[in-house]
């Protein structure tokens, strides 16, 4: 159980760290998952309540277990997205992305911004941190896809 809580916490952290840029949303699914996760965090509880009440009021006591199970499923969806984000944050980067991040790092160093080097065992969280730093510290002329 603590492993799941750790994944959820890492997912929340990764959700805050990932830069919400249109250019990145074409390449990586994180932006879409984060938008969906934020929407579900706001709307899952009301949807679950309405779903439970409609089923209970329309069908009566006989559907109580099914209505409860369906409501719990709807309530769990935001947590599932955070678990996915937490899992993704820990995944190692492919070599192509490591070299792409190295190019971004070199551009940042040329601009006079100090950046930690990425190791060969870098993960998506490290890339998100680098991209976040690149988008926040460099001007609009910075060349990111």
List keywords for this structure.
about 140 residues; mainly alpha; 6 helices; elongated
In short:
The protein has about 140 residues and is mainly α. The protein is about 75% helix and about 0% strand.
> Low-confidence parts lasting 5 or more residues at pLDDT below 50?
none
Give the proportion of residues in helices.
over 70%
Tally the helices.
Answer: 6
Describe the oligomeric state of these chains in a short phrase. single chain
The biggest beta sheet reads: none
**C-alpha-based Rg, rounded:** 20 Å
Which structural class fits the helix and strand makeup? mainly alpha
Q: Give the overall average pLDDT.
A: 90
> How far from one another are the termini?
39 Å
Shape: elongated
User: Which strand-content bin applies to the residues?
Assistant: under 5%
| Helix-strand pattern | HHHHHH
Give an overview of the whole structure:
The protein has helices at residues 2-17, 22-27, 30-59, 64-90, 95-110, 124-137. It is mostly helical. The protein has 2 domains: 1-90, no CATH class; 92-138. Helix 1 (2-17) crosses helix 4, helix 3 packs antiparallel against helix 4 (64-90) and helix 5 (95-110) runs parallel beside helix 6. The longest helix is centred in the N-terminal third of the chain and has 30 residues, at 30-59. The model has no long low-confidence stretch (mean pLDDT 90).
Q: Helices and strands in order, then pairings?
A:
Layout: H1 2-17, H2 22-27, H3 30-59, H4 64-90, H5 95-110, H6 124-137
Helix pairs in contact: 1-4, 3-4, 5-6
